[in-house]
Amino acid sequence: MNGRLKVWDSSGKLLWQAPTVKSSDQPFAFGNWEYGSSTIEWISPKELMSAKPQSDVRPTTFKRYRWTGAAYEPAGTGFLLQDGPDAFTWSKPFEWDGVKPLTWVVSLVKNREGNVMAVKGDQYLGGTAELQSTPTGFRVARWVKKLAAN
Questions:
Q1: Are 47 and 57 in contact (CB under 8 A)?
Q2: 6-32 burial: b if 16+ Cβ within 10 Å, else e
Q3: Model confidence at 1, in pLDDT bands (50, 70, 90)?
Q4: How far apart are CA 125 and CA 120, in angstroms?
Q5: What span, in angstroms and rounded, lies between the C-alpha atoms of 56 and 144?
Q6: CB atoms < 10 A from the CB of 38, how many?
Q7: 97 vs 45, 103, 125, CA distance in Å?
Q8: What DSSP designation does 110 have?
Q9: Residue 112 class from Cβ within 10 Å (0-12 exposed, 13-18 middle, 19+ buried)?
Q10: Most buried among 8, 32, 117, 149, using CB within 10 Å?
Q11: Distance from C-alpha of 61 to C-alpha of 59, rounded to nearest angstrom
């Protein structure tokens, strides 16, 4: 099942709608796919993001969108990688070897909480953090569930 992003004004008038998509690799593809799902996450009044569907353990690629006043436009893709003890920064796509230590935001869930994963050698850690948007990504406001082995 696939969704389509639509924006209405306060009176209920349709202001804009995303184009119809046929595959998950298109910029405005949202919904459930055979290898994962992609839902829209609200970041601010002018910014949205969506995780690209995936079925393996690797950093999540997020699609970003910005409101121009007339439409949402794709604003690129990136990862939310840990940059300091309590910061996740938008990073450009890269090739990860699956071995070097790495911590990233997997997905956003309710009330700006984010699922976080860390890989350190053969150890996988998971946690949940309350995140606040920053100009360069997100900062951890508090850990709801500290990173720990599952």
A1: no
A2: eeeeeeeeeeeebeebeebeebbbbee
A3: low
A4: 8
A5: 24
A6: 20
A7: 36, 13, 17
A8: G
A9: middle
A10: 117
A11: 6
In the structure encoding, which two tokens stand for residue 80, read together?
Answer: 């939310």
Determine the number of helices (DSSP H) and then strands (DSSP E) in the chain.
0, 14
| CA-closest candidate to residue 145, choices 107, 122, 117, 123 | 117
Judge whether 53 and 30 are in contact, CB under 8 Å.
no
Is this model's pTM higher than 0.85 or not?
A: no
Q: Which single residue is written with the structure tokens 């709801």? A: 144
Each residue's pLDDT tens digit, 59-102: 888 999 999 999 999 998 999 999 988 999 999 877 788 778 89
User: Tens digits of per-residue pLDDT, 123-150?
Assistant: 889 999 999 989 999 999 999 999 999 7
What was the pLDDT predicted at 143?
93
**Distance of alpha carbon 118 from alpha carbon 149, whole angstroms:** 9
How far apart (Å, rounded) are the C-alpha atoms in residues 140 and 113? 9
